[in-house]
Amino acid sequence: MSILLEQAQAAVRAAQQKALEMGVKMNIAVVDAGANLTAFARMDGAWLGSLDISIKKAKTARFFDMPTGELGKISQPGGPLFNIEHSNGGLITFPGGIPILDSNGRVIGAIGVSGSTVEDDHAVAQAGVAAVRDVR
Amino acid sequence: MSILLEQAQAAVRAAQQKALEMGVKMNIAVVDAGANLTAFARMDGAWLGSLDISIKKAKTARFFDMPTGELGKISQPGGPLFNIEHSNGGLITFPGGIPILDSNGRVIGAIGVSGSTVEDDHAVAQAGVAAVRDVR
Amino acid sequence: MSILLEQAQAAVRAAQQKALEMGVKMNIAVVDAGANLTAFARMDGAWLGSLDISIKKAKTARFFDMPTGELGKISQPGGPLFNIEHSNGGLITFPGGIPILDSNGRVIGAIGVSGSTVEDDHAVAQAGVAAVRDVR
Amino acid sequence: MSILLEQAQAAVRAAQQKALEMGVKMNIAVVDAGANLTAFARMDGAWLGSLDISIKKAKTARFFDMPTGELGKISQPGGPLFNIEHSNGGLITFPGGIPILDSNGRVIGAIGVSGSTVEDDHAVAQAGVAAVRDVR
């Protein structure tokens, strides 16, 4: 199973709403189970450089089925996966990417958010994840 | 001036609605005046290969401020811009990409649609353009 | 549903066998429903340049759910999809790539073969497709 | 001399068998003396992001004729080859890639494995190497 467009758009809307409440300008990307872009929104005035980062965060979270920040902990100098970021056309391994699971705990996609501090990015991504409800 | 997210999302919604009415599954991308992705939707079951094409159509339409199909007429063998598709990381020059103008006739972005015949792609893109109204 | 490794390897083995019978040296690639490489074999002495082509043929066949040669008919100069090959990091649109379907007619992957004439490539790809049986 | 397909496939089979015994899901890539992909298998359900990593590990091991983990020791901050990962379209320098030698000690190819911890990846790669016997 993969995330449906309806679910992906709900995630983007919720993330946008959260970002507005926090007063931050975000790029928000949702990918499906195949790590293909499914829904995307770039808020007015968000950093140009964050567009690509948001998509790479979403893909990274799905590539390894874990929050991007978790991967970043083990890709540090001296860590077991040092410089894994050079794979897959470029990974982003700091917080802001989170897998999206269905009610059976299976990964159906992921969300990636970029535009503020990594704490803000992660919080907005969480709001997106929380908005995904099983449709079937 | 550049397209606002609100306008870009209106364009995506209208294009999605049009595609549903036509019974086709589309990838729909909207870029801003800087040719940066602003809003995107991938309808459930749309061709995998059309994702990249929809984004490239939107970028191509903004890169040269003309519908992609117009550029394709002059990129043919023997034409003045033969194989211009090799530039900018890959252009798509068949129909489905259309610039979006404001009420003063200035290009503020573009839409790219891919997933069916080029005629269908162009029709869905037109529905997206028509939905953009000046917000200011 | 996506092709299983067991099925993909059966396809590669059958294609290899066919190539041996025909006296040709092939690169043989099988991708899954997400267009991800699943099984691959490069026969001793096969053209170096055919490696990438075999993978691109398999991906192209899955990207658009049709044999690569069919896509090539409409990507010719003056055709509706002229120069579509510039999308998705490079497509190959001459024969040798074929979608693989399950018993319900759903595309579960694709095979791409390169190393001889396009007729030979297509024949070897067909032998691969014929070897895939439903496992479930 | 370069690895033969027969040897490369024996390496993939042995690595697959080892992974099954260990209960891990791996991507397994074998490259020849020219660092060209020769045989590949992606086990059902293996991480999406590990596909590219397995191939990059195999190439890296052949590019420098040493296990990837050895290169990683000298690519750390302050080390002599800091950030060598930026070369050759992306290297992977943590364990899981191992050169394959013939009975005369000459490098004839390499194997790269990715899908679990780097210790598991390396163990599965070793099983693959051990399965390569001189055919001539």
Automatic annotation (TrEMBL), chains A, B, C, D:
Q: Which residues form a coiled coil?
A: none
One matching Pfam family: HbpS-like
List, alphabetically, the InterPro entries matched: GlcG_carb_metab_protein, PduO/GlcC-like, PduO/GlcC-like_sf
Organism superkingdom: Bacteria
Under the heading SUPFAM superfamilies, the entry gives:
GlcG-like
The protein in question is named Heme-binding protein
